[in-house]
Amino acid sequence: MASRRNIDYSRLADDEDDSYDGSGKRQKDPRFDYTPKSYDKIPWKSIILALFLLFLGCLLLFFSFCIFTGHMGGDHSQAYGLLGLGILTFLPGFYETRIAYYSWRGAQGYRFASIPDY
Q1: Where do the record's region annotations for Disordered lie (predicted)?
Q2: Among the four 5, 17, 38, 92, which has the fewest Cβ within 10 Å?
Q3: Distance of alpha carbon 96 from alpha carbon 65, whole angstroms
Q4: Distance of alpha carbon 43 from alpha carbon 45, whole angstroms
Q5: pTM of the model
């Protein structure tokens, strides 16, 4: 473990003029404004992308199932490829769609702000 160094700390001065304009009044800092409507903005592009990935993944998984069972022509290597692509598209689509659905229903801990906006 590293040893602590002997450093003397001092308090910061209370009369800093960084956040004051000429009139002696503090400038408004927009970083600390709380606007609840900014959290309720619905990322429609992300939701549409999630639904597209979900349905594309379901379609690819269905095609791979049909090839595996012999209802559709094709080699088993094609079915494995469709299975891999189906899983890779279904999982993120399902995850983001689930977050959007729970946000829409108002479940605790889910907000539209947790969906990345593209």
Answers
A1: 1-31
A2: 5
A3: 24
A4: 6
A5: 0.65
99 lies in a domain? Answer: yes
How many domains, in total, are found in the chain?
Answer: 1
* pLDDT tens series, the chain, 118 aa: 556 677 777 776 665 555 555 565 666 766 766 666 555 688 999 999 999 999 999 999 999 999 999 998 989 899 999 999 999 999 999 999 999 999 999 888 888 888 887 7
Distance from C-alpha of 43 to C-alpha of 51, rounded to nearest angstrom: 13
Distance (Å) of CA 114 to CA 25, 40, 50, 52, 101: 36, 11, 14, 19, 12
CA 10 to chain CA centroid, nearest Å: 41
Which backbone phi and psi does 34 adopt, to 5 degrees?
-105, 115
